[in-house]
Design goal:
It contains 20 helices and eleven strands. The protein has helices spanning 6-14, 21-39, 42-45, 63-74, 98-118, 120-135, 140-144, 148-167, 196-209, 221-236, 239-253, 277-289, 323-327, 340-348, 354-363, 373-389, 396-405, 407-412, 425-437, 439-445; strands at residues 53-56, 78-82, 174-180, 214-220, 255-259, 292-295, 298-301, 306-311, 331-334, 367-371, 419-423. Helix 2 (21-39) runs parallel beside helix 4 (63-74), helix 14 crosses helix 16 and helix 16 (373-389) packs parallel to helix 19 (425-437).
């Protein structure tokens, strides 16, 4: 992280997200500030709070993609949630504290995977020894009366069998092994949403009292090897250290992306499903401003978790949120609408551009798919026109257009015949012009 300056972060984001320079700058500065905070004196460190961000823009302009790619760059625990799925305490539904519990689960899995990679070679060696023991068990009687000659013969035979195992001679031979099972797997807690944490904690508590059960399974050597390697890797790492590192990662580097924040903005004038809208904001407030959330891994402090909120704000504005919540999102960035030139870049520039995706899909059938520049521009112009005439869904419009354009090729090509396909401007007009010009058809097809 210390190697990534704000300019470098923006440059990396440019590989995946087209345009939106202001939004990229805002998140790049926020990410770099996290590293800067770690460098300051400890007495000052706790006083520096993250500058949470609100991204304002219609769907399909890159809000979610920016946050997701940012988390990948930082190698930080990242959680995307929709604010509209949460309800006020006292109502049936998920409570907002589950965001932090889920984020902690993600962090534990990230740290555990990293730790397992560090011990994977040692785990593979131990798994190989276990496989040899399973394939060629030594009788207890021989173990009791071992002579030097017998021991030497045993090691010689084992070495020969080990070489055969390495060459893959026993890959399809069946072996029986005991796999640790979840003794609490059958126990379920029934009740309202939000009770899952109680069930999880109860399982953990009872698992400490009741011994874990093992399940005997018959597997081929090639399948057993992976299971044994995973078990050995899990046994080699310190689980308490994993939890400590995960907790530290969440508290200092965690990123929460709150999508659809506009759906809980605004006052409640009536009754019905929206009655708890303001209540959700009040429940979110302590988590965003900093509080201690109980999880099955211990108490997690949210003071320095970065929150990035996003919403279209078609029928409301950020000022419709409660004043306390507004104050916790000091940075507001308005996302720009995508133009025809932006659509052209989206189709061609990113590493996983849409055209490259379809070329890769048809390449699997032995088909070489090419697009003329004029055809790409025609696709972008149609996307812009349809967005202007109907609902503006941003870059997601390109997915519907490309699927409609390539529908026949995706249906007909089955890999029987190698073929070159060139999409020209005329092909685009022939397949899409009538639909694009008819508003009713555009609404249902594009």
């Amino acid at each position: 992280m210390n190697e990534l300056t704000p300019k470098q972060i923006v440059r990396e984001l440019n590989y995946f997200v087209v345009g939106q320079r202001d939004a990229k700058r805002a998140v790049a500065i926020a990410l770099r500030n996290r590293w800067r905070r770690q460098q300051v004196a400890e007495y000052m460190r706790d006083e520096i709070v993250p500058n949470n961000i609100i991204l304002i823009g219609s769907t399909g302009v890159g809000k979610t993609e920016i946050a997701r790619r940012l988390a990948n760059l930082a190698n930080a625990p990242f959680m995307k949630v929709e604010a509209s799925k949460f309800t006020e305490v006292g109502y049936v539904g998920r409570d907002v504290e589950s965001i932090i519990r889920d984020l902690m689960d993600i962090a534990v899995n990230m740290v555990r995977s990293k730790k397992e990679e560090e011990v994977i070679q040692q785990a593979e060696k131990l798994a190989k020894e276990k496989l040899l023991d399973l394939l060629f068990p030594v009788r207890k009687q021989i173990n009791r009366k071992k002579t030097p000659e017998a021991e030497e013969r045993y090691h010689r035979n084992r070495k020969r069998l080990e070489d055969k195992l390495k060459k893959g001679n026993f890959e399809d031979r069946p072996v029986e092994l005991d796999i640790p099972g979840d003794s609490m797997a059958q126990m379920q807690v029934f009740g309202p949403f939000g009770m899952e944490e109680i069930g999880t904690n109860l399982k953990d508590m009872l698992s400490n009292i009741m011994p874990g059960q093992k399940k005997r399974r018959k597997l081929k050597v090639k399948d057993a090897r992976k299971i044994l390697t995973d078990i050995e890797a899990h046994n080699l790492i310190d689980q308490d250290e994993v939890i400590r590192m995960a907790k530290e990662s969440v508290e200092n580097n965690g990123i929460v992306f709150l999508d659809e924040i506009d759906k809980i903005a605004g006052s409640n004038k009536g009754v019905g499903p929206d009655i708890s809208r303001e209540g959700v904001q009040r429940d979110l407030l302590p988590i965003i401003e900093g509080s201690s959330v109980p999880t099955k891994y211990g108490i997690v402090k949210t003071d320095h978790i970065l929150f990035i909120a996003a919403g279209a704000f078609h029928s409301s504005t950020p000022s419709d949120m409660i004043p306390e919540l507004q104050g916790r999102f000091p940075i507001r960035v308005e996302m720009k609408k995508l133009s025809t030139n932006d659509f052209i870049k989206i189709l061609t520039h990113p590493k996983s551009a849409l055209i490259k995706q379809y070329q890769a899909l048809l390449k699997a059938e032995g088909v070489v798919l090419n697009f003329e520049k004029t055809a790409i521009r025609a696709i972008a112009q149609i996307a812009t026109e349809v967005n202007n005439k109907t609902e503006n869904i941003g870059a997601r419009r390109l997915h519907t257009i490309m699927t409609t354009l390539l529908d026949d090729y995706l249906y007909e090509q089955t890999g029987k015949k190698k073929q070159n396909i060139v999409i020209t401007k005329n092909v685009v007009k022939e397949k899409l012009a009538d639909i694009a010009n008819d508003q009713d058809l555009s609404r249902y097809i594009l």
